[in-house]
C-alpha cells in the first residue's frame, strides 16, 4: 500500500490552499480529488449564463500545482476512512486503491440541500459543479430560443436570494434585456427571509432589492416554495397566500448540505454533525478525538462561520501550518473577515467591507471585478476572464455560448459564423 505524510481530500478552495502551504515546507503530500479541476464556484453563474467559458474558472488542479514537486495529485473518489489504521480508500477508473497517511486534511465541500424535499433535485437546476453550470447554460439557450408563445420556456424561477440566487437571477434577466433582445424573460426570485441578500441586511439588501426590481425581476420575500410538480412551482407567502408559477426553469440556490464524505468521517472519528450533515469540528480544526485528522471548509461548522471561500482557504492554511510546524498544534483557528460582496447585475454590486465600509452600485462592481480577478487561479484564466468580461459587460456578447454543443436537433450555432458567441437573431428559432 502507498503511504505519504499528508493526504488532502478535495481540490477546492480549502484543499488548494492547504496544498500550497504544505509545499512551502516541501511536506510530502498526496491530494486526492473526485474532480480533475480546481473550480472557482463564485463564478459558476457566469458560466451558466454564457459570460465566461467554463475553462476560465476550472483549471486542472494538476496544472495549478505542477511546480510544487512535493505534491502529487490523484483523481479519485474517497469512499472510506479507517482512522485507527490511518488509511483511506478511494476509487479510480482502475478500481479501488488505499493510501496510508500521517495526517489527513478533508476538504470535500458541500452539495445542495432541499429542506427535506430531495425529490426536487430532479426538477430543478443547481449550481455547485462545472457540469451543473454547463447543463444550465444549454437549457437557458433552449428556453430563450423557444417560440415566444411558449410562456413557461420564457419564465424562470430562482429559489433563494442569497448571493448565488441574486447573481443568477440578475444575469438571466440581463440575457433577456441585452442578449436575446427579442425574447424578454420573466424572472421570479423567491426568498423565505424578509430581505434579499439576508446576511447583508439594511442598506445593502435594500439596494439589491431595488436594483433587481428596477431591472424587472419579480422579487418575492417572506415566501417559500411548497411544491414543485413539472412546470408548476407553488409558493406560499407569509400571509398564507398561495401562488402557482409556471416555469420550465427552476434554479435552486436555497440550501446546502455536506457532501457524503462528511458522514464517513463522522463515523470514523466519532465527530458530531449538525442538521446539514456538517462536521462539528474542534476549534483547532481537528475532528472528533483525532489530532491527526483535520476537516475544513464547507463540510464543517465552527463558530457559525459562513460557507465562503476565504474561510476554507484560511482554514486550509491553518491546518497546514500546524502540520508543518509553523503553528503550534492545537492552536485555535481565528477567521480574519475581509468582507463579502455580491453582484446584482452589470455594473451593480454590493460590498460589505471591514470598518463598516459599504459600497453599492458601480463602485461596488469595480471592487468586485478587482477582487475576483485577483483570486482567479492562473494568469491565462485572468487574461481570458478580462477579455470575456469586456465583451460581455462593455459589449453584449456571451462568449460562453460558443461552447454549447448545438447538435442533437438544436438550432444552429449561437456563436454565429465566427463562433464568437455574439447575439444571434431569434427569428428562425421562434418560427
Ligand atoms: C454558486 C456558488 C457561488 C459562490 N459564491 C461565493 C462568493 O461569491 N464568495 C465566496 O466567498 N464564496 C462563494 N461560494 C462558496 C465557496 O465556493 C465555498 O465556500 C468554497 O468552495 C468551499 O471550499 P471547500 O474547499 O470547502 O469546498 P469545495 O471548493 O466545494 O471543494 C470540494 C472538493 O472536494 C472534492 N470532493 C468531494 N467529495 C469527495 C470525495 N468523496 N472524494 C474526493 N474528493 C471529493 C470535490 O471534487 C471538490 O474538489 C459560492 C459557492 C457556490 C456553489
TrEMBL record:
Residues 420-431 have a biased composition (Basic and acidic residues). One of its GO terms (molecular function) is NAD(P)H dehydrogenase (quinone) activity. GO terms for biological process: aerobic electron transport chain. Keywords: FAD, Flavoprotein, Oxidoreductase. Pfam families: Pyr_redox_2. Residues 405-431 are annotated as: Disordered. Its cofactor is FAD. Belongs to the NADH dehydrogenase family. This is Putative NADH dehydrogenase. The lineage of its organism: Bacteria, Bacillati, Actinomycetota, Actinomycetes, Mycobacteriales.
